[in-house]
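[job 4471] stage=fold_predict status=RUNNING
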Amino acid sequence: MRILIIHERYRQRGGEDRVFDLESAMLEARGCQVERLIIDNRDIRDGQGQLALAANALWSRKGRSLVRDAVRRFRPQVAHIHNWFPLLSPSIHSAIREDGIPVVQTLHNFRNLCLNGLFFRDGAPCEDCLDSSLKWRGVLRRCYRDDIRASATVAALTLLHHHLGTWRRHVDLFLAYSEFSRQRFIAGGLPADRIAIKPNTTPDPGEDAASWRHPRRGAVYVGRLSEEKGIGDLVRAWRDMGHTLTVVGDGPLGEQLRAEASSEVEFVGWRSPEEVSVLLARAALVCVPSLCYEQWPMAVTEAAAHGVAVLASNFGAMGRLIKPRHTGDLVPVGDIRAWRDQAVGLLNAPERLAAMGSAARQSYLDQYSPPSVTDQLLAHYHRLVESRPSRPTPITRLSV
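[job 4471] inference complete, writing structure tokens
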């Protein structure tokens, strides 16, 4: 199968970039012909004109031309889009459909429903803009980058493509990470019959890395050091635990958290996937204290692959991703005392953690290992190709 995979990389490498890299490689390993079209957000110059950047985010003539050329050169059977913001823009979706190519869009975040893509404001979830195509509340509250002009640009983007029908007319299949996320997208107006659920995956580290035959100690947090991730609550909870918390990652709260943390918290900064794998193979517990709606954190998949139980906020999709007292456990969101009590209780019960880790590992092998996720992707692609319409979708043209 010939697959064009499109992605706009982030300035700071994150989960979406990893998913793009992993899925592209998995499909190639299965014998697919994969063409990658990659744009890098680091190409955005700090002094670049804001008006030009805003116009580009709404409707990118350059992005549309790049994608159209790739489609006509490579002639894919399916095009799969990951991130399109802000350099490519949603103009690329109709460019692909002009040639009758089925379009798949992974819903990595809530960008088309919420200005910051997180449904998160002032330390708590916010769905004020969910059921409205006019995101005026988000503009007034400066929800995107705390900037009213940038927020207005993203609001204009969502309004424009709502009225053009971009998502309904030019996307054949949306891939969400959980039923919780799927329901949010349906509530926001996406067609329910075109949203499927596909889990995240991560490379299998092997049975030795997932084994409890070697010593495992302490807990690990892997992720961005920012408010919505709940890392502040976790660091504040981690006092007099008798166990070490290793914090992997960087972000805007890094300096503040280092100043607040007890001696039991070790900050190691950004680490490569290989280095993270070594840390997880030695950990007894992985913590995911998010305050926002997590769709399917890579940390959950990586923990399961390494045979590690997860302690997570009982929030959003986490209640379905983690089976309490089986593959991990759940904590009331934002409850610092509960985080401390449950974490120390688990870390003081290594046999219980070993059993949970073994169950998590089995879930990974059965449901979201690379072979399983590749099977799911290919099944979706084949279904779209087989049901491909005989003619391209009529196109709405926009001159910008």
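[job 4471] summary: The first strand starts at residue 2 and ends at 9.
[job 4471] exit 0
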